[in-house]
Amino acid sequence: MITIDGAIQSDEITIACYINEVPLFLETELVRLYDTLYSSLPFFKVYRSTEQLSSYVAWCGNQPTTILLFKFRNGRIEVLNEMIEIDQAELDRFARYMFAKFSSANIISFKALKTDTHRFSFPIQKCYANDTYVITLPATPKEYTAALGKSTRTGIRYQMNKVVRDHPSFTSRFYVNEEIEEQHIREILKLSGVRISSKAFNFSHDEKRIIRLAKMCGLVNVLFIDGRLCAGSVNYRIGSSYFGAVMGQDFAYEKYGLGKLTIYLTICESIVRQGKRFYLGGGPFDYKSRMLGVQHEMDRLEIYRSYGKLMLNFDRAAKTVIDGYVRQLNVWLHKHEDKLGAKFVLNSYYLWKNLMKKDQQS
Length: 362
Description:
The chain is an alpha+beta fold. The chain has 2 domains: 2-129 and 297-348, Gcn5-related N-acetyltransferase (GNAT) (Aminopeptidase); 138-275, 3-Layer(aba) Sandwich (Aminopeptidase), CATH 3.40.630.30. The chain has helices at residues 26-34, 41-47, 88-101, 141-147, 150-166, 182-197, 207-217, 258-272, 286-290, 307-312, 314-335, 340-361; strands at residues 2-4, 7-9, 13-18, 54-60, 63-73, 76-79, 84-85, 107-114, 124-136, 171-176, 218-225, 228-238, 241-249, 277-281, 294-304. The protein has a 15-stranded mixed β-sheet that branches. α2 packs antiparallel against α7 (207-217).
């Protein structure tokens, strides 16, 4: 490999690094490459700080093959891209380039990715980060409905017929981006918060950020009865992928299963709008499998310049291991949240999170 005008070139790959810069063309290229919310500029702008954000781009010919946005501070390169799959050769190339370019960098951190690290060039730590359930969408809503299990399909049809029979004014409407009414989102978040908090821990959504992101790439489904919002969901679209974010339903209409109907109607609408994938998010909820979601697990990855640097950062390495076990414990607790001991631990955890959030805001 040779260096030419600040870029590294091989026979097929050219690598460029834009320090404290995110070129405009990267927004569409990120969508083309990863097609995921958590590696998109709208998400970074709302949920991450874009100050002093730099860009790594590997080119094959005139087309990028890898784009990773990162921050470098205190000897650590923090990659913002999440929930993506990276080929090991690409990841190895990135690590070698970054350690060569930033001589004081000791660690490269990924929050959530899928990759093979067999015979990797550098010492690594790899532990469970999170998961998500993904539905591969067929060409039509009819095909999707037919693919559902018989009991799920029958249940949806029964609940839909029942709510229409009992409430002829029942309607489902979709709004995108600037069409979205902020009040609709607030009401959906409130309904969602009430349901989550009913499990005995105080919970609140980040309303401002959700509204801001929805205005940029949102798809909001609102269910009305007699002109009143009775259920709904906030979703996002990046490229050909849709992402379910928040779902809320009024307790008064619980017998109609409006939560399940909201999700089903949103998935069907995503298909109509040429969606290829629908992300149901993480968490061990049975309905996600029944709606044809397939679990995709992601790992946290820490890459060290050397074993010596790993030992010098032993405190961080230990924290990474502990965090991985805590995440796995959190998944187990949610699977068994009806048990008294698990419920107590979950309540304590969410109480601590809310106290930390208030402390950060004050």
